[in-house]
User: Fold this.
Amino acid sequence: MYKSFSDHLLDWAGRILLTLILGFLVLPFIVVFIASFNESAILSFPPQSWSTRWYVNAFEYRDFGNGLRNSLRVAAFGAGIALVAGAGFAYVFNRYDFAFKNTLNGILLSPLIIPNFTIGLGVLVLTAAASMPRNVWTVVAVHVIIVLPFVVRSVYVSLQNLERAYEQAAESLGGRPLHVLLTITLPLLLPGLVAGAIFAAILSFNEFTASLYVVSQRTETLPVAMYNYVREYADPTLAAMSVLYVAAVAALLLLVHKIFRLEKVLNVD
Amino acid sequence: MLIDTAQASAQQTADAPAVRVEGVSKSFAGSVALEPISMRIERGEFLTLLGPSGCGKTTLLNLIAGFLEADQGELYIHDKPVTRVPPYQREIGIVFQNYALFPHMSVARNVGYGLRTRGVPKAEAERRVREALALVKLEDFADRRPRQLSGGQQQRVALARALVIRPRVLLLDEPFSALDRNLRAAMQVELREIQTSLGLTTVFVTHDQGEALSMSDRIAVMSRATIRQIGTPSEIYDHPQNHFVASFVGDANMFRATLLEAEGSDARLKLGETEARITSFQTDLPAPGPVTLFVRPEHCHLAEPGTPGTIPATVALSVYQGSHTELHVDCPLAEGGRAMLRVPSRTSVAPGEPLAIGLAESGAAVFGAED
Ligand SMILES: Nc1ncnc2c1ncn2[C@@H]1O[C@H](COP(=O)(O)OP(=O)(O)OP(=O)(O)O)[C@@H](O)[C@H]1O
Ligand SMILES: [Mg+2]
Assistant:
């Protein structure tokens, strides 16, 4: 197709602009990535000499190992509980009409408006007032509150896109409601459910603000452990940690992407 | 004595209609989707619900299937009340417009779904799935996924899946509307053959009048949430009972007229400047006054302009159809200002030429204003 000079100009201007924006977005990561290989114990930029010793340090530092274990546990339980509860809520919201539906919906979505530190503070005050122990389940509870709205949304949208005819066909063929739910509804919702769960796990894994209020030395999550580290040391270990962190989350996101392709395999797109 | 009674009641059940609808109605949030409707669907009958979009066809079908709960009225299947029976106990087969095949199951598992819910033993289930697939000529496709099939093939799988449970009634909601013309014609014939060979009571929804006329034992013509007429295709086409049915099914010429006097089925009408006498197929005619005169194009003929008892018009367009030519004429007396008649192809008429429409002695009807 014929393109005029001004078309070409626009084309190039567009590409340059896009590159600049993308560059701006990943610039902090690039800086951190480079800094993580700095030999010197002071976080200076650009580095004078190179080393991978901070990666070794990151792996050997005990609080990080402990934090990772806690974070993984909290993310798994938090996302799991949020998935079951969220899917149930979404199903009820999609299929039934009842009084105070809007109010309940508002309450469910309120964590989107209420900042994370408020949620953390609230749970802290509550557990203190009720003199309840603060253990790993407290952290899980806070994370469930934070990720639940996202799971409800994600499953609700999947449900809305699911045509009723599938379930009606199954019912007319003699399928009782529970049987239809297990053999038709859930399999057709599966990609949405798995994507929602992984999304929730990533949110939980990244959560810092609310966790800060409710963790103890024993239950601190990885982001909190990193925060505590940086208060004591100023070496590039944290830069190395950041790189590892991004790599792990990116791997998870790739998994999500795989699942979206799985959707095509199941023919429910 | 006891035996007599038992026999009589068995007799009664055998004669009972497949479906009996008694005063069933449905509203959604205050807007009426279905006025109270009563009708019978006989066993083995192919009944079509025909009507424009939004007239309540799907609503009626969903009420029979049990996906909707009637606001009032009672529904019987094989003479048993089912108004409060859930869909999974109604033994009804359904084919949806978009097929609704389960995408995560093979063709064979789709067809076998209704047998698994019934706990049919595996060997028997496999045999029945094979038979059902053979019935729709898809034996070789058992292991495919639905998305690997063409639209027509998916439609057949949907049919096989509904038939395999030996339903008491088969419901089809515009099943062929997504298919192209040739395939649709083929599927119409195939469905009708299968339906007749199984003696299956069938309720078929369409808004295609040609499809309704060619396939049905009886047609229920619906508009605005109610059934306007129910009868055999020829009753519906030849003897429509109201203005809506007359104009919705087939080509119709409608003329504004004044009914001067009526005696039995004979009517004297004032048509513009002239007067005409017709013999209606109706048994009772509306009261004298303003009416609509209904005549199919095949009951109209070309007449000399000015002949008494004919309707003046001018040719607007002539459309050659091979066996005949359709003359579309401008006619001040006709509703919408247009009428149509079919003339032999060798008749030569030029646009703008004045002519007159003559009426055959029978085949006409007059509808009062409220029809
Ligand atoms: N679930 C519903 N909620 C609210 N209104 C509805 C619902 N289902 C149907 N209606 C309304 O009821 C009326 C009849 O709908 P129905 O689906 O029965 O029409 P139809 O004859 O099947 O039309 P079409 O040929 O377009 O499928 C319509 O006015 C429709 O808007
Ligand atoms: Mg419909």
